């Protein structure tokens, strides 16, 4: 898998309006996780794989003077994020990759990411970079929808034509610990809106059947919370 391939796919999503639509799909889970993160005034937050930046803007508004920076490899996502941004919100967006973050060591108090880390081209390197740019005592909150225990997501890599990292919960924990994180806690976050009703269900490339959609909902998103130790 290459960054070019990922950028081509997600540029196409951005052109088709799928960047904004992800807010509808991911919004409730992200709201629950962001509500549970304590951002103090003036703190620095990084949003990895920010897409059109809606979560970046939520993070920037968590505390007075906080600043959030979104990074994404797809230029069209970043262009849309800039279009949707406002000068009254301290958020900005950069084109870049997880594997080579263009920030100094120990810049961020928090690193957040929704539905992006399993696309990493080089996952151990991406986690080393997350660790490097975080302050000691800082916290990472990485949320993913595609993981081994959620069987309904196993076909996503094939559907997207990408080689995704479909790890078990134990493998995610080990990968974070290997990168130097401690207090690695895993939990599931369920969308509070429920699975919906079968009559309204429309099959899609990600959810070919109602049963798979329900199983997906029941499993919940995987939240990985980890600290960079002092
Ligand atoms: C499924 S989208 C999620 C976007 C956003 N977090 C949201 O919930 O709306 C994943 C995003 O991660 C970005 N991405 C994937 N792999 C990346 C990498 N290795 N470096 C930087 N960005 C990456 C993609 O371009 C895409 O915009």
Radius of gyration: 17 Å
What's the architecture in CATH terms?
3-Layer(aba) Sandwich
- The CA-CA distance between the termini, in Å, is 34 Å
- What CATH calls the topology is Rossmann fold
What is the percentage of strand-forming residues? 15-25%
Largest sheet: 7 strands, mixed
- The counted number of beta strands is 7
Present as ligands are: S-adenosylmethionine
Unreliable residue stretches: none
- The portion of residues assigned to helices is 25-40%
The structural class is alpha/beta
Order of strands across the widest beta sheet?
3-2-1-4-5-7-6
Average pLDDT reading = 96
Describe the global form: globular
What's the CATH H-level homologous superfamily?
A: Vaccinia Virus protein VP39
Plain-language structure description:
Strand 1 (44-48), helix 3 (54-60) and strand 2 (67-72) form a beta-alpha-beta unit. The longest helix is centred in the first third of the chain and has 18 residues, at 18-35. This protein is α/β, with parallel strands linked by helices and 230 residues long. Strands 3-2-1-4-5-7-6 form a seven-stranded mixed sheet, sandwiched between helices. The protein has helices spanning 3-15, 18-35, 54-60, 75-84, 123-133, 156-160, 169-178, 210-219, and strands spanning 44-48, 67-72, 91-95, 108-114, 134-144, 182-189, 221-227. The protein has a single domain, classed as 3-Layer(aba) Sandwich (Rossmann fold). The chain has eight helices and seven strands, in the order H-H-E-H-E-H-E-E-H-E-H-H-E-H-E. S-adenosylmethionine binds at residues 3, 6, 10, 22, 26, 49-51, 55, 72-74, 77, 97-98, 114-116, 119-121.
